[in-house]
Amino acid sequence: MSKSDKLYIEQLKRELERERLSKIETEQIAEKITLDLYKEKTKFQTIVDTTKDGIAILDFETRFLYSNDSYLQMTGFNKDELLTKSVTELFTSETIQREKDVLKEVMKKGFVENIETTCIVKNGRKLGVSMSLSLLPNKEKILLVAKDITTQTKNKKALDEHIKIVNQNVLITSTDLKGNITYVSEAFCKICGYSKRNFWVKTTI
C-alpha cells in the first residue's frame, strides 16, 4: 500500500469518526429537547388537572375538543357527553347572541376576558360563570377558562335586595365635614317630603 493510500485511509477514518461523534451529539441534543418538552408538558398538564378553574379547548365551530376535570364537575357532563356538544349549546336563549358576538371578538382580537354569563348545564341546571377566551398560538383552537360564580351572583343579589329593603324602610342620612348632605335613603325622603335632588342643595341645620 502506497503512502498516499495510507494517508487517504487515515483521513477517511477521521472523517467517519467525526460523523459518528456528530451523530451522537445530535442524538443527545434531540433526546434532551424531547425530555425538556415532556417535562414542560407534564408540568402544564399537572396545572390544568389540579386548577379549580374549568379549562376547555374548542375548535372554530366552538365544539369541545378537551376539558379538564374541574370543567366536567362544573357542568356535570362526562368527557364523552361534552365532546358531542359545542359551547354555544350551553348558552341561554337570552344571552346566546351576545356570546356569539363575544366569540367573533375572540377571532378578531385574539382574546376576551371576564365575561359573566349564565349557562344551562346538565339536567337543566343554571350555572353562573365568568369566562375568558383566547386563541391558542396555532390560531386553530380556542382556550376557554371558566370560573363558577353562581354562589357569588346569588350573594350579590341577596345583598342588593337587602340594601333595597333598608333604603325603602330605614331613615338614613349622611353628611360631609361641612354639613353638606351626601346621602339620604328613600324612607328619609318620604318622611321629609323632599326628593333626593332637593337634598343635594341643602345642608343640615
Please explain how this structure is put together:
It is built from seven helices and seven strands, in the order H-E-E-H-H-H-E-E-E-H-E-E-H-H. The protein is an alpha+beta fold. The strands form two sheets. The protein has a five-stranded antiparallel β-sheet. It starts with a helix and ends in a 6-residue tail after the last helix. The mean pLDDT is 76.
Estimated share of beta-strand residues: 15-25%
* Morphology: elongated
* Overall pLDDT metric: 76
- Helix and strand sequence: HEEHHHEEEHEEHH
Question: Largest beta sheet: what is the strand line-up?
Answer: 2-1-5-4-3
Low-confidence parts, pLDDT < 50 over ≥5 residues? none
The separation of the N and C termini measures: 123 Å
The biggest beta sheet reads: 5 strands, antiparallel
Q: Would you report the number of β strands?
A: 7
What share of residues is helical?
40-55%
Secondary-structure-derived class: alpha+beta
DSSP summary: helix tally? 7
> What does the radius of gyration come to?
33 Å
